[in-house]
Write a structure and sequence with these properties.
This is CRISPR-associated endonuclease Cas1. This protein is an alpha/beta fold. It has 2 domains: 58 residues, Ribosomal Protein L15, Chain: K, domain 2, CATH 3.100.10; 228 residues, Up-down Bundle (Four Helix Bundle (Hemerythrin (Met), subunit A)). 50% of the residues lie in helices and 14% in strands. It is globular.
C-alpha cells in the first residue's frame, strides 16, 4: 500500500519547494511530491504562486498539465539552488495580456522611458538599503553611519544621471557600499571579504547567491502572473537565458530578502560555517542536509517581513508606469 501523503506544503503557503531526488505527480485533486527518502507531500495546485524543483525531480505529464491549468509557474534549479536550469511559465491568453506586453515593448524601445523606468528601480533599491543601514546605525553597528552617508550621495547621483549605463554604475557602487557594511556587521566566525558570485566563494557568498536566486524567481513568477514578458527588462541588459525584468523587479527587495536575511541567519546562529562544503567547480554550497533548512528559514523571513505584498506592489507600480507617457514615477524618497 502506498503511504498516504501529508496534506501540507513543506515550506511557505504560496511556494512549494521540492528537493530531489523525487517525483512530482498527481493523486486525485492534488499534486504530490514523493521524495526518494521521506514521506510524500500533497498540496492543491490552485493555492500556489510558484513551484521550485531542485536537482533530479521527475515531473509527470499530469502534474505539468495541472500546474498549467492553475497558472502556476515551475522553476527548475540545480541541486544546490545556485542556478536556474529552466522555468515553465503558463501562457496568459487574452487581449489584456497582449496589450500589456505591447506597452512594455513600446516603453523599452523608447530610450527616455526606459531610463526613467530603470531609475525607479535603482532609487527604490537605494532607499531600501538606506533603511536597513539606518536600523544598523541605531543598533550601533560599525560603519553604518558612513555607509548611510554614501548611500544618500548615491541616491542623489541616481537622480541626476542621464543614461541607463550611468544608473548601472551608480547601482554597482552602492552595492559595494552595502556589502562592505554587511561584512562589518557579521559576527566573528563568519568571513566575507568581497562579493563573489560565479561561483560563490565562502558561506556568506553562498547564502547571498541562494537568496538572490530565490527572490528573482519569485519576481519572475509575479511578472508572468500579470502577463509581462519576464525576459525584457530596462535596468539589466537583455541577454539569452536571463529574466531581465525579473532581475529589475527584484532589486528593491534585495536589501531585505537577501542581505538582511543573510545577516540574520549568520548572526543569530541559525546556520554555521560548518553547514557548508567546498566544491572544486561549484564553489561553496550548503551541505545537502542543511539545504532544506535554509530554504525553510528564507520562506519564514519572506512571510514575516511581508515581502510577497511588497513584490506585488513593485510589479503593480511597474505596470502603472507603462501606462504613463512620461515613462516612470517621480524621484521617490531619499535613504
Amino acid at each position: 500500500m502506498r503511504p498516504r501523503p501529508k496534506r501540507a506544503a513543506p515550506f511557505g503557503p504560496r511556494t512549494w519547494h521540492c528537493v530531489g531526488p523525487g517525483r512530482l505527480g498527481t493523486r486525485g485533486p492534488r499534486a504530490v511530491f514523493s521524495p526518494l527518502h521521506g514521506e510524500p507531500v500533497a498540496v492543491r495546485t490552485g493555492r500556489l504562486d510558484l513551484v521550485c524543483c531542485y536537482g533530479t525531480v521527475h515531473l509527470s505529464a499530469a502534474a505539468l498539465y495541472r500546474f498549467c491549468q492553475a497558472g502556476t509557474p515551475i522553476a527548475l534549479f540545480s541541486a544546490d539552488g545556485r542556478r536556474v536550469r529552466g522555468r515553465l511559465l503558463p501562457e496568459r491568453p487574452g487581449p489584456s495580456a497582449a496589450g500589456l506586453r505591447d506597452r512594455q515593448f513600446a516603453a523599452l524601445a523608447d530610450p527616455d522611458r526606459r531610463r526613467e523606468l530603470a531609475r525607479r528601480f535603482v532609487l527604490d533599491k537605494l532607499a531600501a538599503q538606506g533603511t536597513a543601514a539606518r536600523e544598523l546605525q541605531k543598533r550601533g553597528k560599525p560603519g553604518a553611519t558612513a555607509a548611510l552617508h554614501r548611500l544618500r550621495n548615491a541616491w542623489r547621483r541616481a537622480n541626476a544621471v542621464d543614461s541607463v549605463n550611468a544608473l548601472r554604475g551608480v547601482e554597482g557602487g552602492a552595492a559595494a557600499i552595502w556589502f562592505r557594511l554587511l561584512a562589518a556587521t557579521l559576527r566573528p566566525g563568519w568571513s566575507f571579504a568581497k562579493r563573489v558570485r560565479r561561483p560563490p566563494r565562502g558561506p556568506v557568498n553562498a547564502l547571498l547567491s541562494l537568496a538572490g536566486t530565490l527572490v528573482v524567481e519569485r519576481a519572475a513568477a509575479a511578472a508572468a502572473a500579470r502577463g509581462l514578458e519576464v525576459d525584457r527588462g530596462c535596468l539589466h541588459e537583455n541577454r539569452p537565458g536571463r529574466p531581465s525584468l525579473a532581475c529589475d523587479l527584484a532589486e528593491p527587495l534585495r536589501a531585505d530578502a537577501v542581505g538582511r536575511w543573510t545577516l540574520a541567519v549568520c548572526n543569530q546562529g541559525r546556520l554555521s560555517p560548518a553547514d557548508f562544503e567546498e566544491h572544486p567547480s561549484h564553489g561553496t554550497r550548503l551541505k545537502p542536509d542543511c539545504f532544506p533548512v535554509a530554504l525553510a528559514d528564507w520562506e519564514t523571513h519572506w512571510a514575516v517581513h511581508d515581502l510577497r505584498e511588497r513584490l506585488n506592489g513593485v510589479v503593480t507600480e511597474f505596470v502603472a508606469a507603462l501606462g504613463r507617457r512620461s515613462g516612470g514615477p517621480g524621484a521617490g524618497v531619499s535613504p
